[in-house]
Design a protein that fits this description.
Maf protein; 5-stranded mixed beta sheet; Alpha-Beta Plaits; alpha/beta; homodimer; Molybdenum Cofactor Biosythetic Enzyme, Chain A; 17 strands
Chain lengths: 423, 423
């Protein structure tokens, strides 16, 4: 089993009104199992179009992964189309109907009659249990080719693929394995990162190395092809070590590790706490920190002081300083960090005050100017940053939040590599 | 010319390492020209795979739009594959070669010999000029079907499509125009929304009506096909009015309007202010509110009180209540909202305290239990919500934040339709 066809079903996808992320996610999972995505097809919610692509995919691919069109509405046509393609009828799957009813009962609701269709599966097929939503998935062998169909909701699809589909494919896969690794960096622009690893990024190298950037986080992607997982892992380890040697502590983590997650891990390891005082980021740093499960261990809380009055009332920033220096100033960033630290008794406090735009900039305080403070037992440091006058508000806010988190990360011991923590 | 096939070419796309945005963009442009994207196919940089999909697309579609694989490197194979599909040779296009050389001269560089291949086009084809990069595009009629191929770099592709391809398609197009509209709703599940508009969602209706859901926001998408824009707009207006009549004030906005944006607009119209007291959402409501430009007009700030001590120190929640009722309780939600409102003097205050999980749930206070408070001059209302024990932390947090914003929206006068505001 080497060649997979991936099918994404939905009129909103075909019309370009929703960007499909399921196809890419599935392709990456398949690659790690030694199965290459040979073709990815998107079709609208139309029975004939869906049926045709299933027939073609089953004829040309070794396995078919499809998502979308399993909802309870009249434009959810995937199960009908799949039955058509297989030349069979749909039949009621009692166990799935029971699970559906239980899903609604658990939420204190009556199951709408329209949801009943979600318990119908093509004769000869199998239901794939859905732990997070109403629609079960479908597994059927079409002209000798296994087809797995899940709902289009990404977290439902991912959970079902990982629990039910991946183990079956892992047993069947036999191609060259592709393993990927991502290194997250913060603190240098993408061109500067590229300059330092240019010789590793040439065409045809194995592992292949490429970069991408989002909100100032430059990600380095490594792709290693090998006969087996161990060999691929070893070649990724070598490449990672070389890149870390060159880039030092701008590398904050690997794969799904996020900057807030790494900061949290470092704080938890040290048994220390942080609090926040946010103006232009409006709560974003707190939201990022608390997106990490278990963050109550190290995040105490903070103040969102968007107005000057809030800075005074919640954090004790003096009105004199606000008037003399302005809300966007080094002095106010310092007073905010120290104010929240004093009130909550945290080991560290981060503060942010700046001009996120698009309006509100002046010649001396342009859009993109942000003061970021870090307070601790050894005092308070405030850094001025200029995130680009032309950048959208969203970019300036995220860069301010990440830069604050990165200041704390470097203070806590920097890089996420096992070797460098605590050195 | 009514049915288009869209082809995206690139191994990084097929492997899911880069998310394709070209396909969606092209589908939207085509729809506005009266051409439907019938199928969207992604294939890796492999001559046979690319050739096969061109042959299939030319046989089944009325027009083919492709992007990617026109670079100067060895894995850029689209022009060879297209010549294969047409059964012709590649030939040097002198004018394109001149343009290529001039491109490099203008940048003070000599053209690398490898770039010469970019001036090769299939016999019988035409070069499409590229104003922004090196690779010209290709236009060829394959078995009677016009095929347009551009580089994969989005801004090059978009410029070439708009300047060269769109005018040709507009002249040839004879299909109907598609205009789309989205209505955002909050407060009912997708199945319940569907039940109320099921008769509008039938297959083949015009406008077509479909729904999708993200973090509890159920979006209703209307697609109207018509001979002209005015007619399409009128039919969208009629459908929107009917849906609003049925769903009432769960409809919060249209097209790009967001729940935080609508709340902001209503507050600004009334000259009123809001503050926030967030526990399990950790600053997310503040971050959502301040994502809207101009939010300083109505958002004063708030407290992120993740720990019990923060609830006491920043908001004055009594330790007795915290001990007697627990942090996740109606009493604490009420004290949080009233505490922040008193401190900041806002007209409204929202509070959230709950169990976001995955750990921390108990039999009486399970994961997903969230108390949401809304305080105003007329008193404080607290609602208990249960967002689903199996839902990921991210979903519970977003649903809690949106539910809080929606409570405030309904309080402020509800729906975003011109007609219903203030009624």
């Amino acid at each position: 089993m080497e060649r997979a066809w991936i099918i994404s079903i939905g009129t909103e996808l075909a019309l370009g009104q929703t960007i499909d992320t399921n196809g890419g996610w599935l392709a990456r999972q398949l690659a790690a199992l030694g199965i290459r995505a040979e073709r990815h097809v998107t079709v609208p919610d139309h029975t004939g179009a869906i049926r045709d692509v299933f027939v073609e995919a089953a004829a040309k691919g070794d396995v078919v992964l499809a998502s979308g069109g399993l909802g309870p509405t009249e434009d959810d046509l995937t199960r009908h189309a799949l039955a058509d393609a297989a030349g069979v009828e749909l039949e009621l799957h009692e166990a799935s109907l029971e699970r559906l009813r239980a899903f609604f009962v658990a939420r204190g609701r009556r199951m709408p009659e329209t949801n009943r269709v979600q318990a119908m599966i093509p004769c000869g097929g199998r239901a794939i249990q859905n732990g997070c939503g109403t629609a079960p998935g479908l597994h059927i062998v079409l002209r000798g080719t296994p087809c797995y169909v899940t709902p289009g909701v990404p977290f439902e699809m991912r959970a079902m693929f990982s629990r039910d589909v991946a183990p079956a494919l892992a047993a069947a896969g036999r191609g060259q394995v592709l393993l990927s690794r991502r290194l997250g960096t913060y603190g240098l622009g993408e061109s500067n990162v590229n300059e330092q690893i240019a010789d590793l990024m040439g065409k045809g190298q194995n592992p292949g190395v490429g970069t991408s950037v989002s909100f100032g986080v430059v990600s380095i992607r490594l792709n290693a092809w090998a006969e087996g997982r161990a060999e691929a892992e070893a070649s990724l380890d070598d490449a990672e070590a070389e890149i870390r040697r060159r880039l030092g502590d701008i590398v904050f983590g690997r794969d799904d590790e996020t900057l807030p997650g790494v900061v949290g891990r470092l704080l938890a390891q040290r048994g220390e706490t942080v609090s926040t005082a946010e103006s232009c980021t409006g709560g974003l740093i707190g939201a990022l920190l608390t997106d990490v499960p278990g963050s109550s261990q190290y995040f105490l809380g903070g103040a969102v002081t968007y107005s000057n009055e809030a800075k005074t009332r919640l954090l004790g920033v003096s009105q004199d300083v606000l008037e003399a220096r302005g809300a966007v100033s080094e002095s106010v960033a310092q007073a905010m960090a120290e104010g929240v630290s004093r009130r909550l008794g945290s080991d560290y406090a981060l503060s942010v005050t700046g001009v996120a735009g698009p309006a509100g900039g002046t010649s001396t305080k342009p859009v993109g100017l942000v003061y970021i403070g870090l307070s601790s037992s050894t005092g308070t440091v405030v850094e001025p940053w200029l995130f680009g006058e032309d950048s959208p508000r969203e970019v300036i806010r995220h860069r301010a939040a990440y830069t604050a988190l990165n200041m704390l990360r470097r203070r806590l011991g920097g890089s996420a590599s096992e070797g460098s923590v605590g050195k």
